[in-house]
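name: query_chain
kind: protein
chains: 1
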Amino acid sequence: MNLLFRLIWMFSTARWRSRCGMMDETHLTFRVFPTDLDVNMHLTNSRYFSLMDLSRVDHLMRCGAWKQVRANKLMPVLGSGSIRFRRAVPPFKKIDVTTRVVGTDEKWIYLEHKIIAGDMVYSVSVLKAAFLNANGRVPVPELLKIFGYEGEPPPMTEALTRIRDADDAVMEVAET
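structure:
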């Protein structure tokens, strides 16, 4: 239930947060509540992804793309996510969730999220996202035009290519 309240808070306070560009890094701040904890009394694994969901929507709102998502009846979806937990986040810790686009290919937008408190990075994740419409997946070049982005998107790096290949390998394992 607390994510519902966080979602309402995020939407109701969006107009006061600074605007950003599509490729800029954004930060959204949360406090780790007791309802966010697992039996080990630290931020539960699933909550990381939930907070990242909220951060991605905030990013879309702040860069102006959310209006286009709604106007074009687009549905954002994740294809996969990889996360590296570096240390446990204790109760009541104030954390920032960062979001930035780190690369694109024809089908996917690759995003990086970090959970940070002060100078300490608690987790790093890379997710691949797409947007669907009534006809299926919207190709990234077309999507960027819909969003009004005219610059060059970040290219695929060697590290992102390795992540994509590892993701494909997971599907190969699952199919055997």
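note: The first strand starts at residue 26 and ends at 31.
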